[in-house]
Amino acid sequence: MYDFAHGQSDSIEGITHSICTLEFEVHRPLYDWFIKELEIHAPKQIEFARLNLSYTLMSKRKLLELVKEKYVNGWDDPRMPTICGIRRRGYTPESIRNFAETIGVAKRDNTIDVALLEHCLREDLNKKAMRVMVVLNPLKVVITNYPDTVEELDAVNNPEDINAGTRKIPFSKVIYIEKDDFMENPPKKYFRLSPGNEVRLRYAYFIKCENVIKDENGEIVEIHCTYDPASRGGNSPDGRKVKGTIHWVSAEHALNVEVRLFDRLFNAYDPEIYPEGGSYKDNLNPESLKILKNCKAEPYLKNVTLLEKFQFERLGYFCVDPDSTVENKVFNRTVTLKDSWAKIEKKD
Q: What does the alpha-carbon distance between residue 345 and residue 348 come to, in Å, rounded to a whole number?
């Protein structure tokens, strides 16, 4: 009955080419026979392979299980391979179209590495996304020889787009940097901040760590540094070289924001491969979502729009989540700047 109705429906609607997935290939002779015997307009049925992506599932039945059993937060969860999910994650229509054109149409079932989709996304966002500075895990830095004043520095909005212009960012005596950008006992080839070492603050000055403040548990809570006033803009007039450049946010002007770090929903390249007696759910990635509160963002992000996209410098691409409020801006990580999974797979 399906084949009987399928051809007539296509014919009535004036379809010229009926594009179906491969399971309809064996149905085509009956599809054509009904149309011929009924002597009606004859569409041409063409079959193609269903798109399968690594590290995810396309089965609606299994995706429904994940929603109902609360492994994800609804159909628009940014980890879901649904239109509403990837839109909320921050994917652009252009990146998906480019991905589709790149892989083409196949007649044989295969699995496309999701890294290719992420590559298409990075290429598109790199051209469009405004650069901003956000500190996810803040560490307080006091610049002891900096005056008790505030100055405004020029920052480039997007080096890939000269028409994007520049913006002003405030700089003051107390700033936040990433905890990962400081190490008290660094290994060789560690070019970020450490005692006695000098780094470049993006768009600002050279600073050198002079003292480390710890709490009663021995945890580092504050760093005291000095700055070189002659190095404004990130270069030193005496020509000395500094290998490390780190991002920062002025403590006095910082916005508290929530950042959701999304990763792949499954750990396995093919989630359908699992030990006997198990299920695809055994391959779920427990680290697919990390929520960070009280991240520090530059004040430009105070007035953002729903799903607006940014590059957090050195961290990745992010977009504004619908959960955002006036008091609490929420940002979803769309994709990292580099494909860390490629390194993991190579190591494995």
A: 5
Whether residue 295 contacts residue 335, with contact meaning beta carbons closer than 8 Å, is answered with: no
Distance of alpha carbon 286 from its chain centroid, rounded? 18
Amino acid (one-letter) located at 201: L
Q: Are 173 and 147 in contact (CB under 8 A)?
A: yes
pLDDT (tens digit per residue) in 39-68:
999 999 999 888 889 999 989 999 999 999
Domains identified in the chain and CATH numbers: 2-48 (3.40.50.620), 134-247 (2.40.240.10)
The answer to whether 132 and 300 are in contact (CB under 8 A) is: yes
For 246, counting Cβ atoms within 10 Å of its Cβ (0-12 exposed, 13-18 middle, 19+ buried), the class is buried
Residue 214 CA from chain centroid, whole number: 33
Q: pTM for the complete prediction?
A: 0.87
Cα dist from 315 to 174, 200, 287, 318, 334, whole Å:
22, 17, 17, 9, 11
Asked if residue 258 lies in contact with residue 295, where contact means CB atoms within 8 angstroms, the answer is: yes
For residue 315, the 8-state DSSP code is T
**Are 102 and 119 contacting, i.e. CB atoms less than 8 angstroms apart?**
no
